[in-house]
TrEMBL record:
Protein name, as recorded: ATP-dependent 6-phosphofructokinase
GO cellular component: 6-phosphofructokinase complex
Subunit structure comment from the entry: Homotetramer.
Residues binding ATP, per UniProt: 14, 75-76, 105-108
Catalyzed chemical reaction(s): beta-D-fructose 6-phosphate + ATP = beta-D-fructose 1,6-bisphosphate + ADP + H(+)
Subcellular location: Cytoplasm
GO biological process: canonical glycolysis; fructose 1,6-bisphosphate metabolic process; fructose 6-phosphate metabolic process
Active-site residues from the entry: 130
UniProt xrefs under InterPro entries: ATP_PFK, ATP_PFK_prok-type, PFKA_ATP_prok, Phosphofructokinase_CS, Phosphofructokinase_dom, PKF_sf
Activation and inhibition: Allosterically activated by ADP and other diphosphonucleosides, and allosterically inhibited by phosphoenolpyruvate.
Length: 323
């Protein structure tokens, strides 16, 4: 296989804080190792339509602290068709691109795998606030999103305390409860509802709140993951069944923005450099991951097969600490 000399970098799927730090790392490390690096705008959309800019060291100045992604992102249905993939591959060839670094989630990796089947080299970097990618212990953006939610919980606690109310907070995570569980522990929630687990409103929500009241609690925080949904209905049921005033807040996309934390910046930087080091050694079709606190790389098909489950002992811990 010839040396990889020209690479592209794109962000795909939902944005996540730290994606810019990852782009910066790919561009700087790529140029350091003598590669030409193209920034591809709006994910696979930009790849299909040739929306490329050659990046310089200065293209990524002053972005490490910025949320979102300077390359912008998109969900691209056309890319899921054979015709779309072929257009993307042809476009990459026109610009002499040998390999592409894809920063995104599982969906984006499936697209990357399709590119690799057409002979284009790919490396995936985990970028999503959900932390729900099977092959890695950590995804870029998770820490920042959790800290954003934490700040909101702390504020909500102030007003819940003042009014002796219950606050029901819906956080992101359509299919995964990692944000909900993490902030449930960090924010001292009485109840945490996860999409991975069925719940019964009486047994799992009303009962622990009444028991808490009987033990002297005066205000309550309930975290509901987006995939569970129904925060307003849950709040109404609490008020109706317990007589405790309750208010619902849906945090929404505020969780996706904001300046990345130190952890996300460092993780994104390490993973971005790892991606380029693989390419420098002509290694492609891998996903960069964090495993047991080490940055590793996993073959893309194997990575897509890997599953990760909510740790039951952590769920139990959150219940114990809510007493
Ligand atoms: P994420 O990467 O965060 O999981 P999506 O699931 O929205 O986000 O996927 C992002 C993009 O990746 C999609 O818009 C599409 O272009 C591409 N993609 C997703 N799933 C597939 C698939 N099964 N095959 C090919 N491309 C896919
Ligand atoms: O995957 C990240 C995520 O923020 C999920 O937590 C959420 O369900 C989804 O994206 C929201 O997507 P959109 O930005 O399309 O509303």
């Amino acid at each position: 296989m010839p040396d990889i000399r020209t690479i592209g970098v794109l962000t795909s799927g939902g944005d996540a804080p730290g994606m810019n730090a990852a782009i910066r790392a790919v561009v700087r490390a790529g140029i350091f190792y003598g590669m030409k690096v193209f920034g591809i705008q709006k994910g696979y959309n930009g790849l299909i339509h040739g929306d490329f800019t050659e990046m310089t060291l200065r293209s990524v100045s002053d972005i490490i602290h910025r949320g979102g992604t300077i390359l912008q992102t998109a969900r691209c249905p056309e890319f899921k068709t054979e015709e779309g993939i072929q257009k993307a591959v042809d476009m990459a060839r026109v610009f002499g691109i040998d390999a592409i670094v894809v920063i995104g989630g599982d969906g984006s990796y499936r697209g990357a795998r399709d590119l690799s089947k057409h002979g284009l080299g790919v490396i995936g970097l985990p970028g999503t606030i959900d932390n729900d990618i099977g092959c890695t212990d950590y995804t870029i953006g998770f820490d920042t999103a959790c800290n954003t939610v934490q700040e909101a919980i702390d504020k909500i606690r102030d007003t819940a305390y003042s009014h002796e109310r219950c606050s029901v907070l819906e956080v992101m995570g359509r299919h995964a409860g990692y944000i909900a569980l993490n902030v449930g522990i960090a924010g001292g929630a009485e109840v945490v509802l996860l999409p991975e687990k069925n719940y019964d409103i009486t047994k799992d929500v009303i009962k622990p709140i009444i028991e808490g009241r009987n033990r002297g609690k005066k205000h309550y925080v309930v975290i509901v993951a987006e995939g569970v949904g129904g925060a307003i209905e849950i709040s109404n049921a609490i008020e109706e069944k317990t007589g405790i005033e309750s208010r619902a807040t849906i945090l929404g996309h505020i969780q996706r923005g904001g300046s990345p934390t130190v952890y996300d910046r460092v993780m994104a930087s390490r993973m971005g450099v790892k991606a380029v080091e693989l390419l420098k050694n002509n290694i492609t079709n891998r996903i960069v991951a964090l495993k047991d606190n080490k940055i590793v790389d996993i073959e893309i098909n194997e990575a897509l097969e890997m599953k990760k489950n909510i740790d039951e002992s952590v769920v139990e811990l959150s219940r114990i600490l809510a007493l």
